[in-house]
């Protein structure tokens, strides 16, 4: 008896069914490995993949992204609104194309409601970006990196209980009266950088540079 050997061809419809029937956690893992623009373009893969990009949990808007794409913070706010689940990682590079501080703060507020765990805001504009008190609502943060920003002092803020890593560069804390806190203080009051306090029991890594 002879055995026929050959390559079995999979029909496009069968391949489409396989992709469409993958569990959401597998799809999310695939999407999170793509650049944001490419993840959104999966909308055109097949009918059942429409809006699968709303499962994204990691968003990186770095310098390379804005150099290649005509994308502004207003569109970013709309994107965050459409995402279904939590956002675990978010990085935003701010250059001359992004000027609306209110939009940036609105994004931070949206992230606080989606359980953000890793947040990076890198401002390269000459003036510091003034973050609103929305930052203090990101209670699930594990990693926080802020570059060339300022934020208002909040005497009622109790700290980030889950924070593991904190990096501040060119960052300024402003008191309620508009004057900066002591520029020589290595521990800023509102962020509770003191590792010995019970307010930051998990903090393992702190990097401070050009704190004014």
UniProtKB/TrEMBL annotation:
<dbReference type="InterPro" id="IPR001810">
    <property type="entry name" value="F-box_dom"/>
</dbReference>
<feature type="domain" description="F-box">
    <location>
        <begin position="16"/>
        <end position="69"/>
    </location>
</feature>
<protein>
    <recommendedName>
        <fullName>F-box domain-containing protein</fullName>
    </recommendedName>
</protein>
<dbReference type="InterPro" id="IPR036047">
    <property type="entry name" value="F-box-like_dom_sf"/>
</dbReference>
């Amino acid at each position: 008896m002879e055995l026929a050997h050959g390559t079995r061809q999979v029909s496009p419809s069968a391949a489409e069914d396989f992709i469409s029937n993958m569990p959401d956690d597998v799809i999310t893992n695939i999407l999170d490995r793509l650049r944001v623009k490419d993840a959104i373009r999966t909308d055109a893969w097949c009918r059942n993949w429409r809006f699968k990009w709303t499962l994204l949990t990691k968003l990186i808007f770095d310098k390379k992204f804005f150099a290649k794409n005509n994308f502004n913070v207003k569109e970013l706010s709309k994107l965050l609104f459409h995402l279904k689940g939590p956002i675990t990682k978010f990085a935003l590079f701010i250059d001359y194309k992004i000027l609306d501080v209110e939009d940036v703060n609105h994004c931070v507020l949206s992230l606080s409601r989606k359980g953000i765990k890793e947040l990076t805001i890198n401002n390269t504009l000459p003036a510091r970006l003034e973050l609103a008190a929305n930052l203090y609502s990101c209670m699930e943060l594990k990693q926080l990196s802020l570059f060339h920003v300022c934020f208002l002092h909040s005497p009622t803020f109790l700290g980030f209980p889950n924070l593991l890593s904190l990096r501040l560069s060119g960052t300024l804390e402003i008191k309620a009266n508009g004057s900066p806190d002591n520029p020589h203080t290595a521990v800023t009051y509102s962020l509770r950088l003191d590792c010995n306090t019970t307010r930051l029991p998990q903090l393992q890594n702190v990097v401070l540079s050009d704190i004014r």
